[in-house]
Amino acid sequence: MNTAKVYLIPSLLGESEHSRVLPLYNLDVIKSLTTFVVENEKSARKFIKQVCPEKVQSELDIYILNKDTEPEEIFELMKLLDKGISLGIISEAGLPAVADPGAQLVNIAQSKRIQVVPLVGPSSIMLALMASGMNGQNFAFHGYLPIDKTERKKRLSYLENESSKTGIAQIFMETPYRNNQMVEDLTNILKSDTKICVACHITLEDEDIRTLTAKEWSTEKYDFHKRPAIFVMQVD
After folding, report:
1. Of 160, 61, 65, 60, whose CA–CA distance to 104 is shortest?
2. CA distance 32 to 30
3. DSSP-assigned letter for residue 11
4. Residue 139 and residue 228: Cα distance in Å, rounded?
5. Which residue of 117, 130, 141, 206 has the fewest CB atoms within a 10 Å radius of its CB?
C-alpha cells in the first residue's frame, strides 16, 4: 500500500507575519517534508526559510510545476509518489490548486488514489468575498478577464447581466500593474448602481478592502497600482 501523501501547503499573500494566517500544524508538515513541488523556486525557498528557518535548504528537493510544465514532466513527479515519497505543493501565493497549476498534479494523484491533504491557509478569493458583503451563497470565480478592450467590455457586460439575473457574485483578478485601469473600466462599463469590491493587499498591514457602487468609485480616491487585488462585482 502506498503511504505517500500530497500536502497542499498554503503560502503567504505577501510580506506578512506567517503567525497571523498559518496554523502551527502547517509548520509541522513543512518540517517533516524534504520534497516540494512549487510554482517558483526562489519564492518557495524564501517562504520555507521564513516559516521553518531551521530547515537546511541544500537538503531540499525542489521541483517546478507552473503553466509551462509539460504533461510528461508531471507524470515524472508521480514517480516520486510511487516510491513512497510524500510531496508538498506550494503555489506562488495563497492556496495550491486554486487558480494554480498544482491542480494538475492533484488530479493525477486523485486518479491513482494517493491521499491528498489540504491545509488551512489564506485564500485571497474567499477572503475578498467574505469582506465584500456580497453573495456568499452563490458566487463564481473567473480568473483573469480578457486584456483586449472590446473583449473585456463584452465579458464585463455579460457578467453584470448574469449577476442581475441570478444574484451571483462575480469574482475576478487582474495583473497588479493594471489594477487602476480595471477600476476605470468597471466604472465606465458597468451600470451606476452595480456594486464593486476591490480587495487589495489582503492580510497585509496596508490591507484595503472597499465595496462601492460604480458611480461611487468614479469619484473615489484610490491607488491600487502594483498591489495584488481581487475584484468582486454584484448587481442587487
Report:
1. 65
2. 5
3. B
4. 21
5. 206
CB atoms within 10 A of CB 42: 9
Task: Say whether pTM exceeds 0.90.
Answer: yes
Nearest Cα residue to 200 out of 216, 224, 221? 224
CA 13, distance to chain mean position in Å, is: 8
CA dihedral 9, 10, 14, 19 (to 10 degrees): -90
Q: Which DSSP helix (H) or strand (E) runs through 199?
A: strand 195-200
Rounded to an integer, what distance in angstroms lies between the CA atom of residue 138 and that of residue 104? 26
Whole-number Å distance between alpha carbons of 91 and 76: 19
Which pairing describes strands 195-200 and 229-234: parallel, antiparallel, or unpaired?
antiparallel
Residue 225 is predicted with a pLDDT of 97
Domains defined for the chain, CATH in brackets: 5-118 (3.40.1010.10), 124-234 (3.30.950.10)
pLDDT along the chain (236 residues), means of 10: 90 90 96 96 96 95 93 89 95 93 94 96 97 98 95 97 97 97 97 98 96 98 97 96
Residue 210, all three cell numbers: 472597499
Cα dihedral: 116, 117, 120, 121 (round 10):
-50
